[in-house]
Amino acid sequence: MYAGYPQPRPTNTLAVASLVCAFVFAPLGIAFGHISLSQIKKTGEEGRGLAVAGLIISYVFTAFMVLVLVWAVIVIIAVGRSLEDLDGTTSDYTVTPTQPIDAQPLPEFKPPATLGSNCQYPATAEPASKPAKPPRTGRVPTQPALVSASITTNRGGIGLQLDNAKSPCTVNNFASLAQQGYFDNTTCHRLTTTPTLGVLQCGDPTGTGRGGPGYRFPNEYPTNQFRLTDPAMEIPRLYPRGTLAMANSGLGTNGSQFYLIYRDSMLPPTYTVFGTIDKTGLATLDKIAAAGTANGSDDGKPNQDVTIEIVRLD
């Protein structure tokens, strides 16, 4: 009579746990491995190989983790010392974010076929805030491409280059008003100082923002680079520092008010660009802007009164 096969010995549970924990949490794998070897020695259970494998892998992982930790501490100390070395020093430049990173520039100028061919300045229901005759109508020259002008204020001079090649009807209007003395002895009534809009607004004899010459005229560049129904007309574009642009209350409502843009500004392309401001003018504007607004907000009357004494074509 045969006695049969002997019953297989059970596998030690902690030996299995040691191998599993070696890949999950190595220190626990080490603990389970040593305990399981001790139990196997007493009980004769299976699993010694599993326990030994768990111990080896756990020790390897633990050693690796210690090396990584030591390396990280060394790096942190080195970075900390570098920052201490830089503490108290100043850089050679200052970065001032003034517009969104994805700000789109104004579109490339492509002369419309009708550029300067029929400038019109129809009367408005509101009378002129100061006596002024409308500019000549019809075709106006686009040459010379640039026309020099200067604004003398009680805060300093502002030199301009009027862009006759891009916005001839607008330059025609500005030149006409300047020659009539329309801007003389008027105040710049509005200053904005937000990160995305930095302008000094002038050209209203009433100083209220509601005055005008008694007529209006259509937009030119950059508006004429878009279809009027183009959704892109509503997306702000970057009007760079040093831009001279018309202020308005909507398309086709240009009159006498204008923006002196002293900081990169975000505006929809519905404000006609008709020139640039020179370095001297920007320095004057920077001083005015630094004084802030009278009410301390980022949009209001300049804290320092700004009076245009005379505008002349050079």
From TrEMBL:
<dbReference type="GO" id="GO:0003755">
    <property type="term" value="F:peptidyl-prolyl cis-trans isomerase activity"/>
</dbReference>
<feature type="region of interest" description="Disordered">
    <location>
        <begin position="122"/>
        <end position="142"/>
    </location>
</feature>
<keyword id="KW-1133">Transmembrane helix</keyword>
<keyword id="KW-0472">Membrane</keyword>
<dbReference type="InterPro" id="IPR029000">
    <property type="entry name" value="Cyclophilin-like_dom_sf"/>
</dbReference>
<dbReference type="Pfam" id="PF00160">
    <property type="entry name" value="Pro_isomerase"/>
</dbReference>
<protein>
    <submittedName>
        <fullName>Cyclophilin</fullName>
    </submittedName>
</protein>
<dbReference type="InterPro" id="IPR002130">
    <property type="entry name" value="Cyclophilin-type_PPIase_dom"/>
</dbReference>
<feature type="domain" description="PPIase cyclophilin-type">
    <location>
        <begin position="156"/>
        <end position="313"/>
    </location>
</feature>
<dbReference type="Pfam" id="PF13828">
    <property type="entry name" value="DUF4190"/>
</dbReference>
<feature type="transmembrane region" description="Helical">
    <location>
        <begin position="49"/>
        <end position="79"/>
    </location>
</feature>
<dbReference type="InterPro" id="IPR044666">
    <property type="entry name" value="Cyclophilin_A-like"/>
</dbReference>
<feature type="transmembrane region" description="Helical">
    <location>
        <begin position="14"/>
        <end position="37"/>
    </location>
</feature>
<comment type="function">
    <text>PPIases accelerate the folding of proteins. It catalyzes the cis-trans isomerization of proline imidic peptide bonds in oligopeptides.</text>
</comment>
<keyword id="KW-0812">Transmembrane</keyword>
<dbReference type="InterPro" id="IPR025241">
    <property type="entry name" value="DUF4190"/>
</dbReference>
